[in-house]
Amino acid sequence: MIADSAAGQPAILIGHSGAGPLLAAAGAMIGDGVRGYIFVDAGLPTPGQAWMETVPPELAAQVREMADAEGWLPPWPLWWGEEAMTELLPDRSVRRLFVAGCPRLPLAMFEEIRPAIPLRPDAPAAYLQLSQAYEVEAAEARELGWPVAQVMNHHLAMLTEPGRVAGSLHDLLGLLLS
């Protein structure tokens, strides 16, 4: 699906949250058409590791405990509870649409070893930090020499401050394409 969506055209891959570590594998599907990557409040690639290996042990244990007998997790918003989601997304209609769009996922997806594929060395990358939770990743991106922008608010700021997030993405795209 990713390779089909690029349809042989140049593409910049943008990944939010847990999609960040998968951008290198997605780029490999597209091949030479990848012109860059932008990580948005996202983990960085961890080739050869599972998600469960990259998070604090307490979070990994919490996620495992949430799985039902068939190995399915509740939708992501339910991991954090109604109060936390209301704090992140105070607008009831925005929150309802977001929650409705979040599927259940198999626990196995979080235990699966990620492909040992690095980012394309000829494609530049950038980082957009939205929350304090991704300070380590933003610092690592800076150390790698990537442009880093900040819209410090919360992990779902693209839903509550779409103009600011889009503006920062536009600026980072300009830097990657220059």
Give the helix/strand layout.
Blueprint: H1 2-6, E1 11-16, H2 23-30, E2 34-40, H3 51-54, H4 57-66, E3 72-73, H5 76-80, H6 82-88, H7 92-100, E4 105-106, H8 107-111, E5 125-129, H9 135-143, E6 148-150, H10 157-160, H11 162-177
Parallel strand pairs: 1-2, 2-5, 5-6
Antiparallel strand pairs: 3-4
Provide the descriptors you would attach to this structure in a database record:
6 strands, 4-stranded parallel sheet, two-stranded antiparallel sheet, globular, alpha/beta, 11 helices, 178 residues, 2 domains
Briefly say what this structure is.
The chain is of the alpha/beta class and 178 residues long.
Description of the structure:
By secondary structure, this protein is α/β, with parallel strands linked by helices. The protein folds into 2 domains: 101 residues, no CATH class; 59 residues, no CATH class. Helices cover 46% and strands 14% of the residues. It is built from 11 helices and 6 strands. Strands 1-2-5-6 form a 4-stranded parallel beta sheet, sandwiched between helices. Strands 3-4 form a two-stranded antiparallel ribbon. It is globular. The mean pLDDT is 92.
Q: Indicate the low-confidence ranges by residue numbers.
A: none
Shape: globular
Determine the N-to-C terminus distance: 28 Å
Supply the helix-strand structural class. Answer: alpha/beta
Number of domains: 2
**Rg, please?**
17 Å
Q: How many β-strand stretches?
A: 6
Strand order of the largest sheet: 1-2-5-6
Number of helical segments with 4 or more residues? 11
Mean of residue pLDDT values: 92
Strand content: 5-15%
Assign a percent range to the helix content.
40-55%
